[in-house]
């Protein structure tokens, strides 16, 4: 395994398989925030403390070979180029904060790219597990296995009343952030999202863009996650999230059925216009590409397009991001060069898929 493998492969291995409700739910993610007792938080710790945290964590997984999820690759963030860090962010393998602001940051990645253990981000340790579709309970189970391995070897900062102590007060308690990434084009087209988002917020959940806090909902893709970690058990947090997400999935499906019933020809026209743009454009920006890819994915999920798989859309959503495009091109590109490269790559990939499936 090498850094090149993580950088050159757009779709992580776990993304190639489908999970429950994969037509709407792209992925489930669990993140556990943990800190070591008697070490300052990353905003205040010394260089020596930072290096000791890395050493302690790295050695645990180098020595531990029977945990059931394979060898983990260790990468130091300071050793990566800016473009390499950006690609890892676009693939959701590290956070923007770890890429841009971490002091002596590092990450341990699994070969399937479904496990990411970030070191010296906002907290000393952040365990992330990703699963396709609605498998948030399964992701938590995997994260707890990793957490137990660590807790057996290091002394966590933990209080009997408060729970796990974290750098940000909003994570104190379970230290659990559970999120589900959903594709909701029909709720956007029917203008229901403006009503749904405030209702979700009132339930203690938050809706964010594709790369989390402060990011844009590119391609009608949203992250729904818990806000509260203190005073609730992991089971309650997961249960509440699953309940809300299942309701949103039902509403998205109902909205898709209503669009097909009342505006079928208009929806079909929108899908194939977007496909035409992707298949023929010579210049295309990130936002337009994301919107067209969203329309085409909706066309696949509603049966209008039958010669493309969902996986190619998952791949192109990542492959057409600015960092990955430049990695693919072998170096920095000016914005207009990226737009030209993006259009060419999409055309080539669609043609390859059509030849593979025998589509018209």
TrEMBL record:
E.C. code: 2.7.14.1
Q: Which residues form the Phosphagen kinase C-terminal domain?
A: 24-255
Where, in this chain's numbering, is ATP bound?
A: 27-31, 92, 126, 177-181, 208-213
- NADP found in the keyword field: no
Catalytic reactions of this protein: L-arginyl-[protein] + ATP = N(omega)-phospho-L-arginyl-[protein] + ADP + H(+)
Q: GO CC terms for this protein?
A: extracellular space
Task: Return the Pfam families for the record.
Answer: ATP-gua_Ptrans
Write the record's keywords in alphabetical order, separated by commas. Answer: Allosteric enzyme, ATP-binding, Kinase, Nucleotide-binding, Transferase
Q: Which GO terms describe its molecular function?
A: ATP binding; creatine kinase activity; protein arginine kinase activity
Q: How is the activity of this protein regulated?
A: Appears to be allosterically activated by the binding of pArg-containing polypeptides to the pArg-binding pocket localized in the C-terminal domain of McsB.
User: Could you say which protein family the record assigns here?
Assistant: Belongs to the ATP:guanido phosphotransferase family.
Q: What does this protein do?
A: Catalyzes the specific phosphorylation of arginine residues in a large number of proteins. Is part of the bacterial stress response system. Protein arginine phosphorylation has a physiologically important role and is involved in the regulation of many critical cellular processes, such as protein homeostasis, motility, competence, and stringent and stress responses, by regulating gene expression and protein activity.
Q: Which PANTHER family match?
A: ARGININE KINASE 1-RELATED, ARGININE OR CREATINE KINASE
UniProt protein name: Protein-arginine kinase
- Organism (species): Siminovitchia fortis
Source organism phylogeny: Bacteria, Bacillati, Bacillota, Bacilli, Bacillales
